[in-house]
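Researcher: We're teaching a course module on how sequence relates to structure. For the next exercise, students receive a sequence and then see the predicted structure as C-alpha coordinates, so they can try to spot secondary structure elements on their own. Here is the exercise chain.
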Amino acid sequence: MKPYVVLFVLALAAPAAAGEPVAVLPEVVASASRWEEPLERVPQDMTVIARDEIERKGVPFVVDLLRLQPDLQVVQNGGAGTLASVLLRGGGSSQVLVMIDGIKLNSPSTGSADLSGLLTTDVERIEIIKGPQSTLYGSEAMAGVVNIVTRKGGETLQADLSAEGGSFNTVKTAGTISGGGERADYRLSATYLDTEGFPIARGGSMPNGATASSVSARLGATPSGDSSLELNMRYGRERTHLDDFAYGVGPVDTASYLQTRDSALVAVSGTISPVERYEQRLTLSFLRDDLEATDPITAYNNYRIVNTTEILDWQHTLELERVTLAGGFAYRYEGADNEGSYARSTDTRAGYLDAKLVLPGDLVILSGGLRGDDHSAFGTAVTWRAGLLARIERLATRLKANAGTGFRAPSLNELYYPNYGNPALEPEESFGYDVGLESDLAGGLLTAGATWFRQEYRNLIQTNYSTYRADNIGRARSQGLEMRLLLRPMDALRLQAAYTWLDAVNEETGARLPSRPRSRFVASLDYRIGAFSALAEYLYVSERYDAGLDRSMASYGLVNLKGEYRLSPQVTLFTRMENLGDEAYEEAAGYGIPGFSVYGGVAVRY
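Model: And here is the predicted structure for the students to work with:
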Protein backbone atom coordinates (compact mmCIF):
# COMPACT_ATOMS: atom_id res chain seq x y z
CA MET A 1 0.00 0.00 0.00
CA LYS A 2 1.45 3.39 -1.03
CA PRO A 3 1.98 6.22 1.49
CA TYR A 4 -0.69 8.44 -0.02
CA VAL A 5 -3.38 5.86 0.85
CA VAL A 6 -3.10 6.99 4.47
CA LEU A 7 -4.53 10.39 3.54
CA PHE A 8 -7.71 8.76 2.28
CA VAL A 9 -8.06 6.50 5.32
CA LEU A 10 -7.45 9.30 7.79
CA ALA A 11 -9.90 11.53 5.96
CA LEU A 12 -12.61 8.90 6.34
CA ALA A 13 -11.82 8.55 10.02
CA ALA A 14 -11.70 12.29 10.77
CA PRO A 15 -14.64 13.57 12.82
CA ALA A 16 -16.41 16.89 12.64
CA ALA A 17 -16.95 17.79 16.29
CA ALA A 18 -14.79 18.34 19.33
CA GLY A 19 -15.05 16.80 22.79
CA GLU A 20 -14.03 17.92 26.24
CA PRO A 21 -10.46 19.14 26.83
CA VAL A 22 -8.02 16.53 28.06
CA ALA A 23 -5.64 17.55 30.83
CA VAL A 24 -2.00 16.77 30.02
CA LEU A 25 0.46 16.30 32.88
CA PRO A 26 4.26 16.62 32.41
CA GLU A 27 5.81 13.27 31.50
CA VAL A 28 8.37 12.08 34.06
CA VAL A 29 11.15 9.76 32.92
CA ALA A 30 14.05 8.04 34.66
CA SER A 31 16.12 6.30 31.97
CA ALA A 32 17.90 9.34 30.52
CA SER A 33 19.79 10.38 33.68
CA ARG A 34 19.27 7.54 36.20
CA TRP A 35 17.01 9.82 38.28
CA GLU A 36 13.44 10.96 37.75
CA GLU A 37 12.96 14.25 35.90
CA PRO A 38 10.49 15.86 33.47
CA LEU A 39 10.91 14.77 29.85
CA GLU A 40 11.06 18.42 28.78
CA ARG A 41 14.37 18.78 30.68
CA VAL A 42 16.13 15.79 29.06
CA PRO A 43 18.93 16.68 26.58
CA GLN A 44 18.96 13.26 24.90
CA ASP A 45 16.79 12.49 21.88
CA MET A 46 14.05 10.44 23.54
CA THR A 47 10.61 8.98 22.81
CA VAL A 48 8.08 7.95 25.46
CA ILE A 49 5.11 5.65 24.83
CA ALA A 50 2.80 6.60 27.70
CA ARG A 51 0.12 4.48 29.39
CA ASP A 52 -2.82 6.23 27.73
CA GLU A 53 -1.29 5.54 24.31
CA ILE A 54 -0.73 1.89 25.23
CA GLU A 55 -4.40 1.57 26.23
CA ARG A 56 -5.66 3.29 23.10
CA LYS A 57 -3.59 1.08 20.80
CA GLY A 58 -4.86 -2.01 22.63
CA VAL A 59 -2.26 -4.40 21.18
CA PRO A 60 -1.27 -7.46 23.26
CA PHE A 61 2.53 -7.49 22.84
CA VAL A 62 5.25 -4.90 23.46
CA VAL A 63 6.66 -5.54 19.96
CA ASP A 64 3.32 -4.41 18.52
CA LEU A 65 3.82 -1.04 20.24
CA LEU A 66 7.42 -0.70 19.03
CA ARG A 67 6.52 -1.71 15.49
CA LEU A 68 4.62 1.58 14.98
CA GLN A 69 7.51 3.77 16.12
CA PRO A 70 9.14 5.70 13.25
CA ASP A 71 12.72 5.34 14.52
CA LEU A 72 12.69 1.61 15.37
CA GLN A 73 12.62 -1.43 13.12
CA VAL A 74 11.11 -4.63 14.54
CA VAL A 75 12.17 -7.91 12.95
CA GLN A 76 10.00 -10.89 13.90
CA ASN A 77 10.15 -14.41 12.49
CA GLY A 78 6.39 -14.78 12.04
CA GLY A 79 3.59 -14.27 14.55
CA ALA A 80 3.04 -14.51 18.30
CA GLY A 81 5.80 -16.29 20.20
CA THR A 82 8.41 -16.19 17.43
CA LEU A 83 11.78 -14.47 17.80
CA ALA A 84 11.35 -10.68 17.82
CA SER A 85 14.22 -8.19 17.99
CA VAL A 86 14.53 -4.45 17.57
CA LEU A 87 16.99 -2.30 15.57
CA LEU A 88 17.68 1.37 16.34
CA ARG A 89 19.55 4.02 14.37
CA GLY A 90 21.32 1.45 12.23
CA GLY A 91 22.54 -0.59 15.20
CA GLY A 92 21.92 -4.33 15.32
CA SER A 93 19.72 -6.09 17.85
CA SER A 94 22.72 -6.88 20.08
CA GLN A 95 23.66 -3.17 20.06
CA VAL A 96 20.35 -2.04 21.58
CA LEU A 97 19.97 -2.52 25.33
CA VAL A 98 16.47 -3.61 26.38
CA MET A 99 15.48 -3.35 30.05
CA ILE A 100 12.43 -3.88 32.18
CA ASP A 101 12.33 -1.49 35.14
CA GLY A 102 16.02 -0.84 34.56
CA ILE A 103 16.95 -4.57 34.59
CA LYS A 104 18.80 -5.84 31.52
CA LEU A 105 16.93 -8.37 29.33
CA ASN A 106 19.58 -8.98 26.66
CA SER A 107 20.60 -12.63 26.52
CA PRO A 108 24.12 -13.46 27.80
CA SER A 109 24.45 -16.16 25.12
CA THR A 110 23.42 -14.11 22.04
CA GLY A 111 23.71 -10.52 23.24
CA SER A 112 20.24 -9.69 21.88
CA ALA A 113 16.88 -9.32 23.61
CA ASP A 114 13.96 -11.46 22.43
CA LEU A 115 10.80 -9.39 22.98
CA SER A 116 8.37 -11.98 21.62
CA GLY A 117 6.67 -12.88 24.91
CA LEU A 118 6.44 -9.48 26.62
CA LEU A 119 2.78 -8.53 27.10
CA THR A 120 1.51 -4.95 27.47
CA THR A 121 -1.00 -5.47 30.31
CA ASP A 122 1.39 -4.39 33.06
CA VAL A 123 3.37 -1.73 31.18
CA GLU A 124 3.15 1.86 32.44
CA ARG A 125 5.34 3.39 29.73
CA ILE A 126 8.24 2.63 27.40
CA GLU A 127 11.22 4.98 27.32
CA ILE A 128 13.38 4.94 24.17
CA ILE A 129 16.71 6.79 24.37
CA LYS A 130 18.54 7.11 21.07
CA GLY A 131 22.29 7.21 20.52
CA PRO A 132 25.19 5.75 22.55
CA GLN A 133 24.21 5.32 26.22
CA SER A 134 26.94 2.99 27.53
CA THR A 135 28.04 5.69 29.99
CA LEU A 136 24.70 5.21 31.74
CA TYR A 137 24.13 1.47 31.29
CA GLY A 138 27.28 -0.24 30.07
CA SER A 139 27.45 -2.93 27.40
CA GLU A 140 24.91 -3.27 24.56
CA ALA A 141 23.76 0.39 24.81
CA MET A 142 25.69 1.33 21.64
CA ALA A 143 22.75 2.49 19.53
CA GLY A 144 20.26 3.22 22.29
CA VAL A 145 18.14 1.92 25.14
CA VAL A 146 14.56 0.64 25.37
CA ASN A 147 13.36 0.64 28.99
CA ILE A 148 9.98 -0.95 29.71
CA VAL A 149 8.57 0.52 32.94
CA THR A 150 5.88 -1.53 34.70
CA ARG A 151 2.93 -0.20 36.67
CA LYS A 152 2.77 0.42 40.41
CA GLY A 153 -0.11 0.35 42.84
CA GLY A 154 -2.08 3.50 43.64
CA GLU A 155 -3.58 4.93 46.79
CA THR A 156 -7.00 3.28 46.37
CA LEU A 157 -8.09 -0.30 45.84
CA GLN A 158 -8.69 -1.02 42.14
CA ALA A 159 -9.37 -4.15 40.11
CA ASP A 160 -9.15 -4.41 36.31
CA LEU A 161 -10.40 -7.31 34.19
CA SER A 162 -10.36 -7.64 30.41
CA ALA A 163 -11.15 -10.30 27.83
CA GLU A 164 -10.81 -10.25 24.07
CA GLY A 165 -10.94 -12.58 21.11
CA GLY A 166 -10.59 -12.48 17.37
CA SER A 167 -8.79 -13.72 14.28
CA PHE A 168 -6.78 -16.95 14.30
CA ASN A 169 -8.91 -18.13 17.25
CA THR A 170 -7.03 -15.75 19.51
CA VAL A 171 -8.13 -15.35 23.12
CA LYS A 172 -6.59 -13.03 25.69
CA THR A 173 -7.60 -12.47 29.32
CA ALA A 174 -5.97 -10.21 31.89
CA GLY A 175 -6.61 -9.22 35.47
CA THR A 176 -4.94 -6.89 37.95
CA ILE A 177 -5.56 -5.75 41.50
CA SER A 178 -3.75 -2.79 43.01
CA GLY A 179 -3.93 -0.44 45.92
CA GLY A 180 -2.00 1.07 48.75
CA GLY A 181 -1.84 3.72 51.38
CA GLU A 182 0.53 6.17 52.98
CA ARG A 183 3.20 3.55 53.79
CA ALA A 184 2.73 0.79 51.21
CA ASP A 185 1.47 0.01 47.71
CA TYR A 186 0.96 -3.16 45.70
CA ARG A 187 0.02 -4.35 42.24
CA LEU A 188 -0.65 -7.99 41.25
CA SER A 189 -1.43 -9.01 37.70
CA ALA A 190 -1.90 -12.07 35.50
CA THR A 191 -2.29 -12.37 31.72
CA TYR A 192 -3.02 -15.30 29.41
CA LEU A 193 -3.02 -15.38 25.60
CA ASP A 194 -3.65 -18.30 23.27
CA THR A 195 -3.78 -18.30 19.47
CA GLU A 196 -3.96 -20.98 16.80
CA GLY A 197 -1.84 -18.67 14.67
CA PHE A 198 -1.17 -18.80 10.94
CA PRO A 199 1.56 -20.41 8.79
CA ILE A 200 4.75 -18.51 9.54
CA ALA A 201 6.37 -20.16 6.49
CA ARG A 202 5.15 -17.99 3.61
CA GLY A 203 4.57 -21.00 1.42
CA GLY A 204 3.29 -23.19 4.23
CA SER A 205 -0.19 -24.40 5.12
CA MET A 206 0.24 -25.42 8.76
CA PRO A 207 -0.70 -22.79 11.40
CA ASN A 208 1.87 -22.05 14.08
CA GLY A 209 0.09 -21.66 17.41
CA ALA A 210 1.38 -19.98 20.53
CA THR A 211 0.49 -19.58 24.19
CA ALA A 212 1.87 -16.87 26.47
CA SER A 213 1.12 -16.33 30.14
CA SER A 214 2.60 -14.13 32.84
CA VAL A 215 2.13 -13.22 36.47
CA SER A 216 3.76 -10.31 38.27
CA ALA A 217 3.84 -8.57 41.61
CA ARG A 218 5.22 -5.13 42.41
CA LEU A 219 5.26 -4.25 46.10
CA GLY A 220 6.42 -1.02 47.67
CA ALA A 221 6.92 0.18 51.22
CA THR A 222 7.86 3.55 52.72
CA PRO A 223 8.90 2.92 56.33
CA SER A 224 9.72 6.60 56.78
CA GLY A 225 9.82 9.81 54.83
CA ASP A 226 13.48 9.32 53.92
CA SER A 227 13.51 5.61 53.00
CA SER A 228 11.68 3.19 50.72
CA LEU A 229 11.78 -0.46 49.67
CA GLU A 230 10.47 -2.10 46.50
CA LEU A 231 10.12 -5.73 45.41
CA ASN A 232 9.47 -6.62 41.76
CA MET A 233 8.72 -10.23 40.76
CA ARG A 234 7.73 -11.52 37.32
CA TYR A 235 7.28 -14.96 35.78
CA GLY A 236 6.41 -15.74 32.18
CA ARG A 237 5.89 -18.92 30.20
CA GLU A 238 5.62 -19.21 26.42
CA ARG A 239 4.96 -22.22 24.22
CA THR A 240 5.33 -21.82 20.46
CA HIS A 241 5.05 -24.12 17.46
CA LEU A 242 7.99 -23.26 15.19
CA ASP A 243 8.97 -24.21 11.64
CA ASP A 244 12.17 -25.76 10.38
CA PHE A 245 14.57 -23.65 8.31
CA ALA A 246 15.93 -24.99 5.01
CA TYR A 247 19.13 -23.41 3.68
CA GLY A 248 18.40 -21.26 0.64
CA VAL A 249 14.65 -21.78 1.03
CA GLY A 250 13.72 -20.37 4.42
CA PRO A 251 11.12 -21.67 6.90
CA VAL A 252 9.20 -24.81 5.95
CA ASP A 253 6.26 -26.53 7.64
CA THR A 254 7.21 -28.77 10.56
CA ALA A 255 4.58 -30.59 12.60
CA SER A 256 6.45 -31.31 15.82
CA TYR A 257 8.96 -28.50 16.49
CA LEU A 258 7.91 -26.99 19.85
CA GLN A 259 9.73 -24.34 21.87
CA THR A 260 9.07 -23.52 25.52
CA ARG A 261 10.47 -20.52 27.38
CA ASP A 262 10.30 -19.98 31.15
CA SER A 263 11.59 -16.66 32.43
CA ALA A 264 11.74 -15.38 36.00
CA LEU A 265 12.79 -11.97 37.29
CA VAL A 266 13.26 -10.92 40.91
CA ALA A 267 14.49 -7.45 41.79
CA VAL A 268 14.65 -5.63 45.10
CA SER A 269 15.71 -2.04 45.59
CA GLY A 270 15.99 0.20 48.61
CA THR A 271 16.56 3.93 48.93
CA ILE A 272 17.59 6.04 51.88
CA SER A 273 18.22 9.77 52.23
CA PRO A 274 20.46 10.26 55.28
CA VAL A 275 20.55 14.03 54.64
CA GLU A 276 18.49 16.42 52.56
CA ARG A 277 19.13 16.33 48.78
CA TYR A 278 21.27 13.18 49.03
CA GLU A 279 19.95 9.71 48.26
CA GLN A 280 21.47 6.24 48.11
CA ARG A 281 19.79 3.51 46.08
CA LEU A 282 20.82 -0.16 46.15
CA THR A 283 19.32 -2.54 43.56
CA LEU A 284 19.78 -6.31 43.39
CA SER A 285 18.27 -8.33 40.53
CA PHE A 286 18.18 -11.91 39.28
CA LEU A 287 16.95 -12.96 35.82
CA ARG A 288 16.74 -16.55 34.60
CA ASP A 289 15.67 -17.50 31.08
CA ASP A 290 15.18 -21.20 30.28
CA LEU A 291 14.69 -21.93 26.56
CA GLU A 292 13.99 -25.52 25.53
CA ALA A 293 12.98 -26.96 22.16
CA THR A 294 12.04 -30.47 21.06
CA ASP A 295 11.66 -31.96 17.60
CA PRO A 296 11.70 -35.76 17.16
CA ILE A 297 12.35 -35.41 13.42
CA THR A 298 15.21 -32.89 13.15
CA ALA A 299 18.10 -33.34 15.58
CA TYR A 300 19.44 -29.76 15.54
CA ASN A 301 16.02 -28.45 16.58
CA ASN A 302 16.53 -30.02 20.00
CA TYR A 303 18.27 -27.74 22.48
CA ARG A 304 18.13 -26.28 25.95
CA ILE A 305 19.77 -22.98 26.84
CA VAL A 306 19.64 -21.51 30.34
CA ASN A 307 20.74 -17.87 30.67
CA THR A 308 21.30 -16.18 34.02
CA THR A 309 21.95 -12.52 34.77
CA GLU A 310 22.65 -11.12 38.24
CA ILE A 311 23.13 -7.40 38.83
CA LEU A 312 24.06 -5.22 41.78
CA ASP A 313 23.85 -1.44 41.41
CA TRP A 314 24.66 0.99 44.21
CA GLN A 315 23.88 4.55 43.17
CA HIS A 316 24.36 7.88 44.99
CA THR A 317 22.43 10.96 43.86
CA LEU A 318 23.15 14.49 45.06
CA GLU A 319 20.82 17.35 44.06
CA LEU A 320 22.13 20.87 44.56
CA GLU A 321 20.57 24.13 43.44
CA ARG A 322 21.71 23.90 39.83
CA VAL A 323 23.76 20.72 39.72
CA THR A 324 22.66 17.10 39.99
CA LEU A 325 25.24 14.33 40.34
CA ALA A 326 24.63 10.57 40.13
CA GLY A 327 27.45 8.12 40.57
CA GLY A 328 27.94 4.61 41.73
CA PHE A 329 29.21 1.09 41.35
CA ALA A 330 27.68 -1.74 39.32
CA TYR A 331 28.42 -5.45 39.19
CA ARG A 332 27.02 -7.82 36.57
CA TYR A 333 27.31 -11.62 36.37
CA GLU A 334 26.21 -13.35 33.16
CA GLY A 335 26.14 -17.09 32.64
CA ALA A 336 24.87 -19.47 29.95
CA ASP A 337 24.48 -23.24 29.96
CA ASN A 338 24.01 -24.40 26.37
CA GLU A 339 23.55 -28.14 26.84
CA GLY A 340 26.01 -30.15 24.81
CA SER A 341 27.98 -27.07 23.75
CA TYR A 342 29.33 -25.01 26.66
CA ALA A 343 28.66 -23.74 30.16
CA ARG A 344 30.54 -20.49 30.79
CA SER A 345 30.13 -17.12 32.48
CA THR A 346 31.63 -13.63 32.64
CA ASP A 347 31.41 -10.77 35.11
CA THR A 348 31.75 -7.01 34.81
CA ARG A 349 32.59 -4.35 37.41
CA ALA A 350 31.86 -0.73 36.63
CA GLY A 351 32.05 2.75 38.13
CA TYR A 352 30.05 5.63 36.66
CA LEU A 353 29.33 9.33 37.13
CA ASP A 354 26.57 11.35 35.47
CA ALA A 355 26.09 15.11 35.94
CA LYS A 356 23.62 17.79 34.92
CA LEU A 357 24.04 21.57 35.17
CA VAL A 358 21.18 24.07 34.79
CA LEU A 359 22.51 27.50 33.88
CA PRO A 360 20.96 30.69 35.34
CA GLY A 361 17.65 31.50 33.67
CA ASP A 362 16.83 27.80 33.16
CA LEU A 363 17.27 28.21 29.40
CA VAL A 364 20.34 26.00 29.02
CA ILE A 365 20.94 22.54 30.49
CA LEU A 366 24.28 20.76 30.14
CA SER A 367 24.79 17.07 30.89
CA GLY A 368 27.72 14.70 30.80
CA GLY A 369 29.01 11.42 32.08
CA LEU A 370 31.97 9.06 32.35
CA ARG A 371 32.08 5.32 32.96
CA GLY A 372 34.69 2.59 33.26
CA ASP A 373 33.87 -1.12 32.84
CA ASP A 374 36.21 -3.99 33.74
CA HIS A 375 35.18 -7.20 31.97
CA SER A 376 36.58 -10.58 33.00
CA ALA A 377 37.17 -11.67 29.38
CA PHE A 378 38.52 -8.62 27.51
CA GLY A 379 39.61 -6.10 30.16
CA THR A 380 38.55 -2.46 30.41
CA ALA A 381 36.32 -0.13 28.40
CA VAL A 382 35.88 3.60 29.07
CA THR A 383 32.92 5.54 27.67
CA TRP A 384 31.73 9.15 27.86
CA ARG A 385 28.75 11.26 26.87
CA ALA A 386 27.83 14.97 26.67
CA GLY A 387 24.53 16.71 25.99
CA LEU A 388 23.01 20.16 25.57
CA LEU A 389 19.42 21.39 25.80
CA ALA A 390 18.80 25.07 24.97
CA ARG A 391 15.43 26.79 24.93
CA ILE A 392 14.95 29.77 22.61
CA GLU A 393 11.83 31.22 24.17
CA ARG A 394 11.03 33.97 21.65
CA LEU A 395 10.95 31.33 18.89
CA ALA A 396 9.28 28.65 21.07
CA THR A 397 12.13 26.38 19.99
CA ARG A 398 14.30 23.79 21.73
CA LEU A 399 17.75 22.78 20.55
CA LYS A 400 19.25 19.43 21.53
CA ALA A 401 22.77 18.20 20.80
CA ASN A 402 24.44 15.02 22.06
CA ALA A 403 27.66 13.08 21.54
CA GLY A 404 29.08 9.97 23.13
CA THR A 405 30.69 6.58 22.87
CA GLY A 406 29.40 3.06 23.41
CA PHE A 407 30.63 -0.50 23.58
CA ARG A 408 29.35 -4.07 23.46
CA ALA A 409 31.06 -6.93 25.26
CA PRO A 410 31.30 -10.16 23.23
CA SER A 411 28.43 -12.53 23.91
CA LEU A 412 29.12 -15.94 25.43
CA ASN A 413 28.37 -17.58 22.07
CA GLU A 414 30.98 -15.35 20.42
CA LEU A 415 33.50 -16.15 23.15
CA TYR A 416 32.98 -19.86 23.79
CA TYR A 417 30.68 -21.61 21.28
CA PRO A 418 32.57 -24.73 20.06
CA ASN A 419 34.48 -24.24 16.78
CA TYR A 420 33.24 -20.64 16.51
CA GLY A 421 33.91 -18.73 19.72
CA ASN A 422 37.07 -16.71 20.20
CA PRO A 423 38.16 -15.91 23.81
CA ALA A 424 40.57 -13.24 22.48
CA LEU A 425 37.77 -10.97 21.20
CA GLU A 426 37.76 -7.26 22.02
CA PRO A 427 34.56 -5.28 22.61
CA GLU A 428 32.71 -3.58 19.77
CA GLU A 429 32.90 0.22 19.93
CA SER A 430 30.83 3.13 18.67
CA PHE A 431 30.83 6.90 18.50
CA GLY A 432 27.69 8.86 17.75
CA TYR A 433 26.21 12.33 17.77
CA ASP A 434 22.90 14.01 17.01
CA VAL A 435 21.58 17.56 16.65
CA GLY A 436 17.89 18.38 16.71
CA LEU A 437 15.39 21.24 16.76
CA GLU A 438 11.79 21.22 17.98
CA SER A 439 9.39 24.18 17.69
CA ASP A 440 5.87 24.99 18.83
CA LEU A 441 4.04 26.81 16.05
CA ALA A 442 0.62 28.44 15.58
CA GLY A 443 0.22 29.14 19.26
CA GLY A 444 1.02 25.57 20.26
CA LEU A 445 -1.39 23.91 17.82
CA LEU A 446 1.51 22.48 15.82
CA THR A 447 4.80 20.99 17.05
CA ALA A 448 7.48 20.22 14.49
CA GLY A 449 10.89 18.66 15.01
CA ALA A 450 13.88 17.28 13.12
CA THR A 451 17.03 15.45 14.26
CA TRP A 452 20.18 14.62 12.30
CA PHE A 453 22.27 11.74 13.64
CA ARG A 454 25.41 9.84 12.74
CA GLN A 455 26.96 6.76 14.35
CA GLU A 456 30.19 4.93 13.60
CA TYR A 457 30.80 1.32 14.62
CA ARG A 458 34.21 -0.33 14.69
CA ASN A 459 35.80 -3.54 15.89
CA LEU A 460 32.54 -5.30 14.98
CA ILE A 461 32.43 -9.02 15.70
CA GLN A 462 31.84 -11.05 12.53
CA THR A 463 32.75 -14.45 11.10
CA ASN A 464 36.28 -14.54 9.78
CA TYR A 465 35.93 -16.83 6.77
CA SER A 466 39.62 -17.67 6.75
CA THR A 467 39.19 -19.37 10.14
CA TYR A 468 35.35 -19.64 10.38
CA ARG A 469 35.56 -18.17 13.87
CA ALA A 470 34.34 -14.94 15.42
CA ASP A 471 36.76 -12.03 14.95
CA ASN A 472 36.91 -8.22 15.32
CA ILE A 473 36.97 -7.39 11.61
CA GLY A 474 33.89 -5.27 10.92
CA ARG A 475 33.25 -1.54 10.49
CA ALA A 476 29.96 0.21 9.79
CA ARG A 477 28.37 3.64 9.89
CA SER A 478 24.83 4.90 9.92
CA GLN A 479 23.42 8.37 9.48
CA GLY A 480 19.98 9.73 9.01
CA LEU A 481 17.28 12.30 9.54
CA GLU A 482 14.20 11.99 11.76
CA MET A 483 11.30 14.41 11.20
CA ARG A 484 8.05 14.59 13.14
CA LEU A 485 4.85 16.66 13.26
CA LEU A 486 2.11 16.87 15.88
CA LEU A 487 -1.05 18.83 15.07
CA ARG A 488 -3.74 19.59 17.68
CA PRO A 489 -6.46 21.51 15.78
CA MET A 490 -8.94 20.92 18.61
CA ASP A 491 -8.88 19.38 22.07
CA ALA A 492 -10.40 16.12 20.87
CA LEU A 493 -8.19 15.61 17.81
CA ARG A 494 -4.49 14.80 17.40
CA LEU A 495 -2.75 14.13 14.10
CA GLN A 496 0.84 12.90 14.07
CA ALA A 497 3.29 12.08 11.32
CA ALA A 498 6.95 11.07 11.42
CA TYR A 499 9.51 10.13 8.80
CA THR A 500 12.96 8.57 9.21
CA TRP A 501 15.57 8.43 6.46
CA LEU A 502 18.43 6.03 7.25
CA ASP A 503 21.67 5.34 5.45
CA ALA A 504 23.35 2.35 7.14
CA VAL A 505 26.39 0.91 5.38
CA ASN A 506 28.95 -1.84 5.91
CA GLU A 507 32.21 0.08 5.43
CA GLU A 508 34.12 -3.09 4.57
CA THR A 509 31.94 -3.89 1.55
CA GLY A 510 29.99 -0.70 0.85
CA ALA A 511 26.71 -2.66 1.05
CA ARG A 512 23.65 -1.54 2.98
CA LEU A 513 23.28 -3.22 6.36
CA PRO A 514 20.62 -5.97 6.42
CA SER A 515 17.08 -5.38 7.71
CA ARG A 516 17.56 -1.58 7.80
CA PRO A 517 14.98 0.24 5.66
CA ARG A 518 16.07 3.46 4.02
CA SER A 519 12.66 5.03 4.73
CA ARG A 520 9.98 4.65 7.42
CA PHE A 521 6.84 6.76 7.58
CA VAL A 522 4.25 6.66 10.37
CA ALA A 523 1.02 8.65 10.61
CA SER A 524 -1.89 8.52 13.02
CA LEU A 525 -5.17 10.24 13.75
CA ASP A 526 -6.53 10.12 17.29
CA TYR A 527 -10.04 11.37 18.06
CA ARG A 528 -12.00 11.39 21.31
CA ILE A 529 -15.51 12.71 21.93
CA GLY A 530 -17.54 11.86 25.00
CA ALA A 531 -17.55 8.11 25.55
CA PHE A 532 -16.14 7.32 22.09
CA SER A 533 -12.55 7.30 20.85
CA ALA A 534 -10.98 6.18 17.58
CA LEU A 535 -7.41 5.74 16.36
CA ALA A 536 -6.26 5.28 12.76
CA GLU A 537 -2.61 4.39 12.04
CA TYR A 538 -0.49 4.01 8.93
CA LEU A 539 3.01 2.54 8.60
CA TYR A 540 5.19 2.51 5.49
CA VAL A 541 8.52 0.64 5.38
CA SER A 542 10.77 0.71 2.33
CA GLU A 543 12.75 -2.14 0.78
CA ARG A 544 15.25 -4.00 3.00
CA TYR A 545 17.94 -6.62 2.40
CA ASP A 546 17.75 -9.94 4.24
CA ALA A 547 21.09 -11.64 4.88
CA GLY A 548 19.56 -15.01 5.80
CA LEU A 549 18.17 -15.66 2.31
CA ASP A 550 20.41 -13.16 0.47
CA ARG A 551 17.58 -11.22 -1.16
CA SER A 552 15.64 -8.00 -0.84
CA MET A 553 12.22 -7.72 0.78
CA ALA A 554 9.65 -5.48 -0.88
CA SER A 555 8.35 -2.28 0.69
CA TYR A 556 4.96 -2.38 2.38
CA GLY A 557 2.27 -0.21 3.93
CA LEU A 558 -0.14 -1.09 6.74
CA VAL A 559 -3.35 0.52 7.97
CA ASN A 560 -4.79 -0.22 11.42
CA LEU A 561 -7.99 1.07 13.04
CA LYS A 562 -8.86 0.98 16.74
CA GLY A 563 -11.93 2.16 18.61
CA GLU A 564 -13.50 2.01 22.06
CA TYR A 565 -16.76 3.02 23.70
CA ARG A 566 -17.30 3.54 27.43
CA LEU A 567 -20.64 2.03 28.41
CA SER A 568 -20.09 3.34 31.93
CA PRO A 569 -17.19 4.52 34.10
CA GLN A 570 -16.56 0.84 34.87
CA VAL A 571 -17.15 -0.89 31.49
CA THR A 572 -15.47 -0.24 28.13
CA LEU A 573 -15.97 -2.04 24.82
CA PHE A 574 -13.08 -2.04 22.35
CA THR A 575 -12.17 -3.33 18.92
CA ARG A 576 -9.23 -3.14 16.53
CA MET A 577 -8.69 -4.05 12.89
CA GLU A 578 -5.14 -4.67 11.72
CA ASN A 579 -3.67 -4.71 8.22
CA LEU A 580 -6.87 -3.45 6.60
CA GLY A 581 -5.40 -3.80 3.13
CA ASP A 582 -4.51 -7.48 3.74
CA GLU A 583 -0.95 -6.61 2.76
CA ALA A 584 1.43 -9.54 2.19
CA TYR A 585 4.82 -8.48 3.53
CA GLU A 586 7.91 -9.68 5.39
CA GLU A 587 9.94 -8.47 8.36
CA ALA A 588 12.33 -11.41 7.91
CA ALA A 589 12.60 -13.06 4.50
CA GLY A 590 10.47 -16.19 4.10
CA TYR A 591 8.41 -15.62 7.24
CA GLY A 592 4.71 -14.90 6.96
CA ILE A 593 2.92 -12.04 8.69
CA PRO A 594 -0.78 -11.83 9.68
CA GLY A 595 -3.14 -10.59 6.99
CA PHE A 596 -6.33 -8.69 7.72
CA SER A 597 -7.45 -9.47 11.27
CA VAL A 598 -10.13 -8.28 13.69
CA TYR A 599 -10.24 -8.37 17.49
CA GLY A 600 -12.70 -7.15 20.09
CA GLY A 601 -13.38 -7.35 23.79
CA VAL A 602 -14.47 -5.76 27.03
CA ALA A 603 -12.59 -4.16 29.93
CA VAL A 604 -14.06 -3.79 33.41
CA ARG A 605 -12.69 -1.58 36.19
CA TYR A 606 -13.85 -1.58 39.81
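Model: If you want an answer key for the exercise: Helices lie at 5-13, 51-57, 62-66, 134-137, 412-416. The longest helix spans residues 5-13.
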